[in-house]
Amino acid sequence: MNQAVNVSQEMLTVYAPASMGNVGVGFDLLGAALSPIDGSLLGDRVMISAADFGVNFSQVGEWAHKLPAEGKDNIVYQCAEFFLYKLDRKDGVNISLEKNLPVGSGLGSSASSVVAALYALNEHFGKPFDEQALLGLMGEFEGKISGSVHYDNVAPCYLGGMQLMLNAQDKACAAIPSFDNWYWVVAYPGISLSTAKMRELLPSQYDKAVAIDFGRNLSAFVHASYQQDAALAIEMLKDVLAEPYRAAAIPGYTDARSALAELGMLTTGISGSGPTLFSVTDDLATAEKAKDWLLKNYISQSGGFAHVCKLDQLGTRCV
């Protein structure tokens, strides 16, 4: 590619929503984007404009202090550097990350930064990459942070809704129907957990019966989603691969799951590798009660929060 690529002359601001990996039932294969019902933005933003030369990077936001102090160590800087090299640009970009998601939260924090950055760069340079190519780049760059390439955060963050990972030759994922009347209560307690360390808690091999349960639950959940059978979907929305090994490593999770069931929530699970949890209901009043309980009993450190959400059907966009 060469410098004939069109360049946006305006300042672009891109928002990439938080996401739940796994969604309980679909370890590494299911993900969903989140949108708080109060209208607040739960996700990172990236601002980009043209520069004379190189990458001029800055980082702001509530969680910026948790990122590497040296700009060149930031994945957003590395995304910009990649774009300039790939397009053989002799000019540059001003690019700023507004870090609104906590690191190691189980809400797709690294995916949000990567997706916002690559989407913004692609828009700025006139869309040189199509949707599937850009999604591939997003997975590759997010994998540099999480340690391996998984699309269950980047796909819903980028495309919105609930996404099933396909890993087919020409298609990484596909949207599946969701339940419009479900409320997803998410609560982040304020602590950080390493995705890599949480993966180390999982066994290297599983019993055949567990593998069969996993396949049945996920396929039945997808079936129920297409049939819009909410009762069946809730029954199948359980994690037999990761939660049994991770629950004890998340302070207060087991107690919270029991308390939320007593409040009338339909099911509760771990968002990604934690420590954020999600809990589902089809009743707004119950969702608000659950949020209040979590704020009082699950949040353990400053910076923790709880939101009542619907799924974000828009995904990443210019704002």
From TrEMBL:
What's the top EC group for this one? transferase
Gene Ontology molecular-function annotations: ATP binding; homoserine kinase activity
NCBIfam families, alphabetically? PRK01212.1-4, thrB
- UniProt cross-references to SUPFAM superfamilies, sorted A to Z: GHMP Kinase, C-terminal domain, Ribosomal protein S5 domain 2-like
Q: Which family does it belong to?
A: Belongs to the GHMP kinase family. Homoserine kinase subfamily.
Protein name, please? Answer: Homoserine kinase
Q: Cellular component GO terms, alphabetically?
A: cytoplasm
What exactly does this protein do? Catalyzes the ATP-dependent phosphorylation of L-homoserine to L-homoserine phosphate.
Q: What gene does this protein come from?
A: thrB
Q: In which pathway does it act?
A: Amino-acid biosynthesis; L-threonine biosynthesis; L-threonine from L-aspartate: step 4/5
